[in-house]
What we know:
This protein is α+β, with helices and mostly antiparallel strands.
Amino acid sequence: MTVPSLMQNHQRKTYVTQLHKVYNELNQVFLQYQTDKNAVNLSEAGLNNQQSVYDLINRYMKIVNTCDTTTTPCFQTSYKFINGNSAAGYNIDYKSFVLASGASIRIVYANQGNVLLWCLVDTNGLKGPNIFGRDVFIFYVYKNGLIDDGPSNGANNAPLTKEQREELNCEGSMNGCFGRLLNDNWEMNY
């Protein structure tokens, strides 16, 4: 192998490792929240509006920076998709947070069907390459408390099937890449 390909493989593993850390932290936060509220799901626990999301983040996560309704310094002002096209639609006016790990997150209350929240994660904050599917990912928290990609055609709930995840367009969309990582056991094979 050449040095550039070794570096690229190392960078991809670093992005995936950081994403996996955020995923695990969020799973633990949601479980602790439900346990503390003696609830069977996140809605019953009181996660039912954007302010309750902010309260959960501030109480249960290690935050080093909060960006009120601006993107920077939590997120970059522009991102791209793997196919090189500019990404739009992620830059909405919600609070964003930088975790102690250096990852940036934005969690938005959605309450659309069985999707309760959507989460935008930049695994390395302001550092590049700022590409969805490389260091930036979006995933969804379903009402049953599971984190997955989607929703895809016919997906009512998490976990999605391997086929439902594969239907999503990882190369030219915000969705799809997280599901591919789940399908491929946390390996960036795309």
